[in-house]
């Protein structure tokens, strides 16, 4: 199955030199493209999941629903992300993943990817690099919820979403279309929707961002970074020997 134009190829070529034959090897293990509708679950909490799903288009969330009914969003899933990392390494999933828009992704069995790693160890390094980036994202999320103020949390989330979309060619240099609802943003930041709205108004009042419907302009990118104490988590290239 061809991967031409797939955002995962854009992500991978940033950290390693992928030759045409290697892209073909990766494409060969994908079984098919799948599409799911908004609100359809890709992973059910507590279930077994043994696939890697490389998101081509659309958006999803990784979350945990507590007995109280409260939802904590662990990650906003964008094009180029991999659904199934890290759950495929465990017996059961400790979270759920649900599409928040129509979602298209290329899917391969986890065992097929492992086999490819044995045949071409470079792809094992790729998975390690992606897992390292995932760990850095989680660490920043912990700092966000544990120590940042609400306005700093929102600033960091906007900057991170913009950077991830820009990396796969889906954002401008200082603007992007925010694909998530207020409820999703609030659950990702540990805020109520009214509180989120007040914080967004504060960012506008301080001329750090402007917004029109879903279009977000990072009006003062440097000021926003200072506010959030934002540090880019760009991956270093994989060394070549």
List keywords for this structure.
4-stranded antiparallel beta sheet, 41% helix, 2 domains, 241 residues, 8 helices, alpha+beta, Arc Repressor Mutant, subunit A, Jelly Rolls
Structural overview:
This protein is of the alpha+beta class and 241 residues long. The protein has two domains: 7-131, Jelly Rolls (Sandwich), CATH 2.60.120; 140-228, Winged helix-like DNA-binding domain superfamily/Winged helix DNA-binding domain (Arc Repressor Mutant, subunit A). It has eight helices and eleven strands. It has helices at 7-15, 20-28, 110-119, 122-146, 150-167, 182-189, 193-205, 221-228; strands at residues 32-36, 41-43, 51-57, 60-65, 71-77, 82-83, 96-99, 103-109, 175-177, 210-212, 215-217. Helix 3 crosses helix 4 (122-146) and helix 5 packs across helix 8 (221-228). The mean pLDDT is 92.
Number of helical regions: 8
Question: Taking all residues together, what is the mean pLDDT?
Answer: 92
What is the CATH homologous superfamily assignment of the largest domain? Answer: Jelly Rolls
Largest sheet: 4 strands, antiparallel
- Note the gap between the termini: 30 Å
Number of domains: 2
Helical fraction: 40-55%
Question: Any idea of the CATH topology of the largest domain?
Answer: Jelly Rolls
Shape: globular
Radius of gyration: 18 Å
| Total count of strands | 11
State the CATH class of the largest domain: Mainly Beta
The sequence of SSEs as H and E is: HHEEEEEEEEHHHEHHEEH
The low-confidence parts are none
